[in-house]
Design goal:
The chain has 186 residues and is an alpha+beta fold. It has helices at 28-47, 55-77, 121-124, 164-178, and strands spanning 19-24, 81-86, 90-95, 102-106, 110-119, 128-132, 136-140, 144-151, 156-160. The two termini are 26 Å apart.
Length: 186
């Protein structure tokens, strides 16, 4: 996470038509290592097993280790980082190295955007793609700054990303251009 001075020298900077940003959580690599360990244990049990208590406990142990390893590995690698792109049509969020899960929100559905200086996984119940009835939907990969979009149907969408303040300025500019007479700070 970077420290950004709020409002210093920003008025003279031109606002880009496309904005991209990222957020990374290197701590989740520890969880990925645990998932890889579960996979390795499952493979080791399947290949070189000296179990004497029967086939059923061995199969259950192998399947359990492999399933746990794959779930942990995918769950962490999918949310090690997030890439956010804002252009004149939409805000697009891609998670992990494969870009999955992916979320695209057309700017036509956005009625406002706010800069959130302090988002935490604790506020949303952990890392990842989250939904809470009282808060809306979020993609949280680390604590820190983020964007909160207010959608036309009353829902909100939140994402943690570096330099979220610049993204909010771009969204405000794009929204004000899309609807003539609309204020820039929606």
């Amino acid at each position: 996470m970077r420290d950004h001075p709020h409002g210093e020298g920003r008025s003279s900077e031109p606002i880009p038509q496309t904005w991209t940003g990222r957020a990374t959580n290197r701590g989740q690599w520890l969880l990925a290592a645990a998932g890889a360990g579960c996979l390795a244990l499952g493979i080791e049990l399947a290949v070189d097993s000296a179990w004497t208590s029967g086939l059923a406990p061995l199969v259950m142990s192998v399947v359990g280790c492999l399933a746990a390893g794959l779930l942990i590995l995918y769950g962490t690698l999918a949310f090690v980082h997030v890439a956010v792109k804002v252009d004149r049509d939409a805000l697009e969020v891609r998670c992990g190295y494969m870009g999955l899960p992916r979320c695209r929100i057309p700017l036509a559905h956005v009625v406002g955007a706010e800069f959130a200086p302090r988002l935490t996984p604790h506020q949303w119940g952990g890392w990842g793609y989250r939904w809470r009835p009282e808060k809306g939907t979020a993609v949280i990969v680390r604590r820190g700054e983020g964007i909160v979009l207010k959608l036309g149907d009353g829902r909100t969408f939140t994402v943690t990303v570096d330099d979220a303040e610049a993204a909010v300025r771009v969204i405000h500019d794009l929204l004000s251009r899309a609807i003539p007479g609309r204020p820039a700070e929606a």
